[in-house]
Design a protein that fits this description.
269 residues, mainly beta, Jelly Rolls, 2 domains, seven-stranded antiparallel β-sheet, 39% strand
Length: 269
């Protein structure tokens, strides 16, 4: 299966230096979501986000600096003038915008907020490093890790304790504020069915690997936000044609690394 598309933020202007609340960079998807009475009935926009590319917090932590989502075809033509406090904070009822926005947490710089409809609905952690392994309890020690049960991570560097492996996705089961255990699936992480660590290793480096999805049910027309295939926020409902978009008011942190990757659209024409 293809990895999907990527979006690189190459905006030279924007936060933190330019503070005007409008898009410094944006794009509109060429694929158009079909109306729910046509096949395929369901539509979705799924992607992964790189939390390392955010370093500007927004006071109040209710909206992000960078957004990806869906909007009605009638409203999307004005995207260059959209503001974070209006369109990017919409619940779909005022502007026909259904999106998820991201920004560095204003108080804790090593995590980013997941925002939707004017509220923070979750967090994604920036890269973390373990300092020790306890094979008796199958735990990795990461001071103030910030993870929640079911968060997806990849060990991208270091010396993994056996049988953990580099470049493999795992799901977090927390064991207090400073220790985590890892499971092979999301469901296993929620019930504490974790991987038995048999041989201790050196420090490992973790990056978040959560799959975020904006999904519209083709029958009910309900639009929701999903994280690792579990709904975390119900936005509203809409039966109109929707188009994918990207919007940012934060200046680029990398001209080569995608801020959003593995972008996939279904139910589109």
């Amino acid at each position: 299966m293809a990895d999907g598309s990527s979006i690189i933020n190459v905006a030279s202007s924007g936060l933190p230096n330019e503070t005007q609340d409008y898009a410094y960079a944006f794009c509109i998807g060429t694929q158009i979501f079909q109306n729910p009475d046509q096949d395929p009935r369901n539509g979705s926009l799924s992607f992964k986000v790189d939390p390392e590319l955010f370093d500007v917090g927004i006071s109040g932590d209710t909206v992000g600096t960078t957004a990806i989502g869906l909007a009605t075809a009638d409203n999307i033509s004005s995207i260059s003038s959209w503001s974070s406090t209006e369109e990017i904070s919409d619940d779909g009822q005022s502007y026909g915008v259904y999106c998820v926005s991201f920004a560095e947490n204003n108080l804790v710089s090593n995590k980013i907020n997941i925002c939707c409809a004017g509220s923070t609905i979750g967090f994604i952690q920036k890269n973390r490093q373990s300092t020790s392994t306890d094979i008796g309890f199958d735990t990795l020690t990461i001071s103030g890790h910030g993870y929640s049960n079911g968060d997806a991570v990849v060990i991208y560097s270091g010396s993994p304790p056996s049988p953990l492996q580099l470049n493999t996705k795992y799901y977090v089961t927390t064991s207090g504020e400073d220790k985590i255990r890892l499971a092979s699936s999301h469901n296993q992480s929620l019930i504490g069915d974790v991987i038995d660590i048999t041989i201790s290793g050196g420090p490992v480096y973790l990056r978040s690997d959560d799959l975020i999805e904006i999904r519209r049910n083709g029958i009910s027309e309900d639009v929701g936000v999903y994280r690792n295939n579990v709904e975390i926020y119900a936005i509203g409902s809409n039966g109109q044609t929707l188009r994918p978009f990207f919007w940012t008011r934060e200046s680029s942190n990398s001209a080569t690394i995608p801020v959003f990757k593995e972008i996939k659209v279904s139910g589109a024409s």
